[in-house]
Amino acid sequence: MACKRGALIVLEGVDKAGKTTQCKKLVKALELSGRPAEMMRFPDRSTTIGQLISAYLEKKSDLEDHTVHLLFSANRWELVPLMKKKLEQGTTLVVDRYAFSGVAFTSAKPGFCLDWCKSPDVGLPKPDLVMFLQLNPSEAAQRGQFGEERYENSVFQNRVQQRFEELMKDTSVNWKVIDASQSIDNVHTSIQDHSLNAINAAQETQLGTLWK
Ligand code: Z5A
């Protein structure tokens, strides 16, 4: 009998919301409970495309805005065969940022609409669950100063937050909003509950396609 597929679980949220912390904790908890799980993150800076993106984020290079948007999308598409293989093998993927960040960040720039920004990511594997870690900017600021990377300023991050709110109106995506101001352990408990539900549901359904 073929094994049941893993779930595609995405964590999104504003800067410092705790996405990386929670992705790691979730993978560890799933593994301890005997459920195969792996973490991925976007951008994946290890690939050739990812290195172009990394240099751009670190302000070591400049790229035209449409071009870098398409590179972020290409960085997801290049990982799709691997993602599908792992999901089919029964591994749950816990992903730190995905296409929603791609759309929210580019559409926060002048002259970009949501529809144009979504188009290169149409057809990606659709997450079974997207958890948005909600944290207001003043609490995020208490977790550390913005770094030196591109986009790390509060005016831009506020526009990104508004774009995420527009994306969350799309009921074809299984969004859950998590209060990220709670303690790390309490946030983890909520995330784990939603994830176990998604993992169980994914076993009975086929992997979907995003925004189709
Ligand atoms: N980007 C894009 O433009 N287009 C795209 O398609 C994609 C991304 C995919 C990638 O940044 C940048 O690329 C990002 C979006 C853009 N730009 N910005 N801004 P990245 O992936 O390299 O880094 P990041 O995603 O920006 O990380 P982050 O947001 O700064 O952090 P986080 O992962 O959300 O948080 P954390 O590292 O887990 O925690 C931050 C600190 O808070 C740390 O000290 C923790 O110990 C602490 N923490 C975490 N949780 C708590 C709680 N609950 N209480 C107290 N303290 C906590």
Task: Explain this structure.
One of its GO terms (biological process) is dTDP biosynthetic process. 47% of the residues lie in helices and 15% in strands. The protein is an alpha/beta fold and 212 residues long. The strands form two sheets. The chain has a five-stranded parallel sheet, with helices on both faces. Strands 4-7 form a two-stranded antiparallel sheet. The longest helix has 19 residues, at 184-202. It starts with 7 loop residues before the first strand and ends with a strand. The chain binds ligand Z5A. The site of ligand Z5A has 24 residues, from helix 1, helix 5 and helix 9.
How are the SSEs ordered, and which strands pair?
Elements: E1 8-13, H1 19-32, E2 37-41, H2 48-57, H3 65-77, H4 80-88, E3 92-96, H5 99-107, H6 114-118, E4 125-126, E5 129-134, H7 137-142, H8 154-167, E6 175-179, H9 184-202, E7 208-209
Parallel strand pairs: 1-3, 1-5, 2-3, 5-6
Antiparallel strand pairs: 4-7
Helix pairs in contact: 1-9, 2-3, 3-5, 5-8
Bound molecules: ligand Z5A.
InterPro entries: P-loop_NTPase, Thymidylate_kin-like_dom, Thymidylate_kin_CS, Thymidylate_kinase
Function: Catalyzes the phosphorylation of thymidine monophosphate (dTMP) to thymidine diphosphate (dTDP), the immediate precursor for the DNA building block dTTP, with ATP as the preferred phosphoryl donor in the presence of Mg(2+).
Keywords: ATP-binding, Kinase, Nucleotide biosynthesis, Nucleotide-binding, Transferase
How would you briefly describe this protein structure?
The protein has 212 residues and is an alpha/beta fold. Helices cover 47% and strands 15% of the residues.
